[in-house]
């Protein structure tokens, strides 16, 4: 019988965490291979070609960032960073180095499993469709027609400025992925300047208003202060 389970490479040196995570991932029907350092992680990555990598950043032989750049050199295999580092700067540098997502220790198994599902779905969506079927992006009630640069909520068109549209289009093309401020600014304006983050926040507030979202209400974009924005379905996290 073909083994069609998703294969996860877990790179983590803490055996207590491995002993919790392995059965948790196997119960969720993933196949798990394990490395306790960066060097072993690279070897197993090459021999096993995993579907997802869960990567601890604090590893004994090398920093996990080293593994990130090793993979991103020639592959888009999803990588979820697992880190005790709560500092925003570390999250931002891991995301900018190509991590798809991160989970901060301590985390719940529900949270990690949700991140894995979201990352896999996002990755498949991108690789299956090239772009999106018929050039239309759909997420629950939100749809975006790329050729016409039109955005709809439940069939009602939302009139956005050029910049606002560009932001929404960029986030939708990376749906599910946490995009750092720097990555969005580079994608929209090409270069950062002093006021870029503020400018981005103002645009985001305007988009939110045009979408008709009330204060405190969940919508398609979540903001992690000091890190960036992520587009995902409402009530998915
Ligand atoms: Ca560690």
TrEMBL record:
Positions of the OmpR/PhoB-type domain: 134-233
One MF annotation (Gene Ontology) recorded for this entry: transcription cis-regulatory region binding
Residues recorded with modification 4-aspartylphosphate: 56
Domain annotation Response regulatory: ranges: 7-120
Keyword Transcription regulation: yes
UniProt superkingdom: Bacteria
Residue ranges of the annotated DNA-binding region, renumbered to this chain: 134-233
InterPro entries tied to this protein: CheY-like_superfamily, OmpR/PhoB-type_DNA-bd, Sig_transdc_resp-reg_C-effctor, Sig_transdc_resp-reg_receiver, WalR-like, WH-like_DNA-bd_sf
PROSITE patterns: OMPR_PHOB, RESPONSE_REGULATORY
Swiss-Prot/TrEMBL GO biological process terms: regulation of DNA-templated transcription
Function as written in the Swiss-Prot or TrEMBL entry: May play the central regulatory role in sporulation. It may be an element of the effector pathway responsible for the activation of sporulation genes in response to nutritional stress. Spo0A may act in concert with spo0H (a sigma factor) to control the expression of some genes that are critical to the sporulation process.
PANTHER family registered for this protein in UniProt: KDP OPERON TRANSCRIPTIONAL REGULATORY PROTEIN KDPE (PTHR48111:SF50), REGULATOR OF RPOS (PTHR48111)
Protein name: Stage 0 sporulation protein A homolog
Species of origin: Candidatus Faeciplasma pullistercoris
């Amino acid at each position: 019988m073909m083994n069609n389970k998703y294969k996860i490479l877990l790179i983590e040196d803490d055996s207590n965490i491995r002993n919790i995570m392995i059965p948790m991932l196997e119960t969720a029907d993933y196949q798990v291979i394990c490395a306790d350092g960066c060097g072993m992680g690279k070897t197993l990555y090459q021999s096993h070609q995993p579907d997802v990598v869960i990567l601890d950043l604090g590893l004994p032989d090398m920093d996990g960032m080293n593994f990130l750049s090793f993979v991103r050199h020639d592959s888009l295999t999803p990588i979820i960073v697992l880190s005790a580092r709560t500092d925003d700067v570390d999250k931002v540098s891991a995301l900018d180095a190509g991590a798809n997502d991160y989970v901060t220790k301590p985390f719940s198994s529900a949270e990690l499993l949700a991140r894995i599902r979201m990352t896999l779905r996002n990755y498949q969506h991108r690789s299956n469709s090239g772009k999106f079927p018929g050039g239309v992006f759909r997420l629950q009630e939100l749809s975006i027609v790329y050729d016409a640069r039109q955005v709809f909520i439940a069939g009602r068109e939302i009139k956005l400025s050029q910049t606002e549209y560009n932001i929404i289009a960029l986030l939708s093309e990376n749906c599910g992925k946490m995009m750092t401020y720097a990555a969005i600014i580079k994608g929209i304006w090409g270069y950062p300047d002093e006021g870029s983050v503020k400018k981005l926040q103002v645009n985001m507030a305007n988009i939110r208003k045009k979408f008709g979202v009330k204060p405190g209400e969940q919508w398609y974009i979540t903001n992690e202060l000091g890190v960036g924005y992520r587009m995902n379905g409402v009530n998915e996290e």
